[in-house]
């Protein structure tokens, strides 16, 4: 169920729920979040079912349950399908149709559009496919309000614009893995230089998105004082990666960007939550 990935997904969903203008009683909120967690885990399980052959080739994924024989492909498929159904039905029961349809869209988009269609065919897989990972705060907001407005769309855009640089940094220091698995990630198809340029460009594009909530007066000074320095530092390390020409230094910086980007997203959404409480 990819619990490490799920934890960040659920956190952003919780933030979307908590900053929404309508309050939700604790039991409804908790059960709705559990339903979203099940849906996220189901999508992860179906992804590992479909990519089990590729996972066995790549060093990053070869110890997952299917390649190691702990779970069969059939078991993973049945588990993923049943858990998807349970999660969607449960969310409809505990919340509303808007949140439910958004969760269903997230699961279907991640499995069919990203995993099955885009990932094996285009280096832009992570750009378009990133929409699935960007929807959880929208689901959280919809759980509370029953609608989707500009505020959760901005949260969606933050994650959507963050995703490419995050995953391309990973693909830079795991290029051999993707080559062996014949997955057309950007460094495999277009080369290291083009990938570094794209990482830097997306870091630049991310900055106005993370400052937009402050400019639009959705969040206040606390959010800006936290998000702006983190955004500037993120641009700096991506620029540093762009300028380096040493292979060893490139991999070191790419790994740092990938690791920092996770902290970056966590801090941005934490500052959103704290600012809304303030």
Overview of the structural elements:
With about 280 residues, the chain is mainly alpha-helical. It folds into two domains: about 1-145, Orthogonal Bundle (Tetracycline Repressor, domain 2); about 150-278. Helices cover about 80% and strands about 0% of the residues. It is built from 13 helices and no strands. The longest helix has about 30 residues, at about 245-275. It is flat, with a radius of gyration of 19 Å. The mean pLDDT is about 95.
CATH architecture of the largest domain: Orthogonal Bundle
User: Residue share in helices?
Assistant: over 70%
The shape, in one word, is: flat
Instruction: Note poorly predicted spans.
Output: none
- Based on secondary structure, the structural category is mainly alpha
Which fold name is given in CATH as the topology of the largest domain? Tetracycline Repressor, domain 2
Radius of gyration: 19 Å
Distance between the termini: 35 Å
Main beta sheet strand tally, sense and closure: none
H/E element order = HHHHHHHHHHHHH
* Integer average pLDDT: 95
Number of separate structural domains:
2
Strand residue percentage: under 5%
Could you tell me the number of beta strands? 0
User: What's the CATH C level of the largest domain?
Assistant: Mainly Alpha
Question: Count of helical segments?
Answer: 13
Q: Look at the structure and name the CATH superfamily of the largest domain.
A: UbiA prenyltransferase
Draw up the topology in text.
Blueprint: H1 3-18, H2 26-50, H3 52-57, H4 73-94, H5 97-118, H6 125-134, H7 136-145, H8 150-173, H9 175-180, H10 186-189, H11 192-215, H12 221-243, H13 247-277
Helix pairs in contact: 1-2, 1-7, 1-13, 2-4, 2-5, 2-7, 4-5, 5-6, 5-7, 6-8, 7-8, 8-11, 8-13, 11-12, 12-13
């Amino acid at each position: 169920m990819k619990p490490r990935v799920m934890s960040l997904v659920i956190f952003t969903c919780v933030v979307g729920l908590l900053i929404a203008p309508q309050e939700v009683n604790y039991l409804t909120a908790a059960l709705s979040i559990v339903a979203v967690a099940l849906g996220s885990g189901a999508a992860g399980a179906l992804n590992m079912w479909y990519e089990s052959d590729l996972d066995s080739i790549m060093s990053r994924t070869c110890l997952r349950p299917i390649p190691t024989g702990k779970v069969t492909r059939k078991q993973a498929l049945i588990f993923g399908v049943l858990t998807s159904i349970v999660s969607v039905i449960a969310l409809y029961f505990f919340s509303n149709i808007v949140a439910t349809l958004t969760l269903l869209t997230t699961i279907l988009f991640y499995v069919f559009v990203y995993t099955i269609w885009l990932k094996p065919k285009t280096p832009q897989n992570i750009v378009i496919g990133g929409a699935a990972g960007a929807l959880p705060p929208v689901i959280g907001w919809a759980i509370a309000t029953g609608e989707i407005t500009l505020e959760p769309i901005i949260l969606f855009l933050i994650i959507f614009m963050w995703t490419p640089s995050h995953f391309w940094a990973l693909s830079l220091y795991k290029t051999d893995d993707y080559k062996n698995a014949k997955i057309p990630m950007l460094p495999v198809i277009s080369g290291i230089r083009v990938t570094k340029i794209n990482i830097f460009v997306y870091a630049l594009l991310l900055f106005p998105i993370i400052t937009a909530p402050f400019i639009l007066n959705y969040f206040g000074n606390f959010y800006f004082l936290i998000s702006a320095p983190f955004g500037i530092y993120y641009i700096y390390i991506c620029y540093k990666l762009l300028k380096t020409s040493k292979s060893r230094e490139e991999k070191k910086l790419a790994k740092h960007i990938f690791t920092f980007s996770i902290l970056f997203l966590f801090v941005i959404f934490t500052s959103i939550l704290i600012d809304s409480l303030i």
